[in-house]
Amino acid sequence: MATLQLKNLKKVYDGGVVAVHGFNIDIKDGEFIVLVGPSGCGKSTTLRMVAGLEDISDGTLMIGDKDCTHLAAKDRDIAMVFQNYALYANMTVYENMAFSLTLRKDNPEDIHKKVMNAAEILGLTNQLNKKPRELSGGQRQRVAMGRSIVRNPKVFLFDEPLSNLDAKLRNSMRREIKLLHHRLGTTMIYVTHDQTEALTLADRIVVMSMGRVQQIGTPYEVYHKPANAFVGYFIGNPSMNFFECRVEGDKLVGKNNFVYQLDADEQAALASRNGNPILMATRPECITLDGEHEYQVDLVEHLGQYSLIHGTMHGYHTIIKVLGWQKIEHGSTIHVGFRKEKVCFFDIDNGARIGG
């Protein structure tokens, strides 16, 4: 196990294209870090720099007390699990898991113990004599993880390992990866574009966009206290509702007679913005089915444990998330309100959060 420090890590490709701008994080021993963001945000490039599969253009990478910035991948004592499994089709599960240890000519008895231990952890004991083609997608991914576990690395790296699996299998494998982390206690860095994976797996989440870190925080922090409008929009399904308004003394005024009354704390936070536009935002589950705002229902999606209501409030497209199977008719008019403690505000120009 090991700590990691990424200090001003930067990746510049030929032609001056900057893929990662000054990435900084201190990762604790045994911590589970998830890098999340849309395609092209730089998350996989960052992971590949840690792995040694991409050269670091600038900055420093420390693994434990060792400077690994320019160290070869084989000397970093890390293991990486890829999206495409990368199993040898002509080898059995046992042989695939043992391959890296056999290649470095470890003691055969030690290899056997490590493979059997990893197989027990991953529920593969009865699959060891099978070839990869005889396995399900989830079993193949477990073999790929087993191949990493036997090496007992300081750090595990995962590059979107579940994206090839169907939704039900992804849920199952997500639990297995989290349980694996609890059992091994090894430092893990995990890349995904799936915010559900990020929220359920991470000790801390790194949200990225356009090669830059937007926020680093616990799942609670990035969900309930997004650092900027991008994080509020990207994290959460559905994303936050946004209302462009103008601060007018003790209230916000928006289009089509939208008025939001500010409490004393909100007034203080927005005092310097008086007369200027801002973004007001709230999560779909933080809009209540009672209040003074008229809401036109366009569509209701019944999803079992909760319902999503799509519609417009004062001309703003707004999604409401409520528990249970709601008997609300398409095309009806209801009245809604806001849970004030869950409302937040963002600068309309740079997206930065205003206030706490």
What percent of residues are in strands? Answer: 35-45%
C-alpha end-to-end distance? 36 Å
Assembly state of the chains shown: single chain
The number of distinct helices, counting runs of at least 4 residues, comes to: 9
Radius of gyration: 24 Å
Shape: globular
Q: Do you know the CATH architecture of the largest domain?
A: 3-Layer(aba) Sandwich
Characterise this structure.
The structure is a single chain. Helix 2 packs across helix 3, helix 2 (93-103) runs parallel beside helix 4 (137-149) and helix 3 (108-122) packs across helix 4 (137-149). The chain has 2 domains: 4-234, Rossmann fold (3-Layer(aba) Sandwich), CATH 3.40.50.300; 241-354, OB fold (Dihydrolipoamide Acetyltransferase, E2P) (Beta Barrel). The protein starts with a strand and ends with a strand. It has helices at 43-51, 93-103, 108-122, 137-149, 167-184, 195-201, 219-224, 229-234, 264-270, and strands spanning 4-13, 17-27, 32-36, 58-63, 66-67, 78-81, 155-159, 187-192, 204-209, 212-217, 241-248, 251-253, 259-261, 277-282, 287-302, 306-313, 316-323, 333-338, 344-347, 353-354. It is an alpha+beta fold and 356 residues long. The strands form 4 sheets. The chain has a 6-stranded mixed β-sheet with strand order 6-7-8-3-9-10, sandwiched between helices. A 6-stranded antiparallel β-sheet has the order 13-12-11-14-19-20. A 4-stranded antiparallel β-sheet has the order 2-1-4-5, with helices on one face. A hairpin with a 5-residue loop joins strand 12 (251-253) and strand 13.
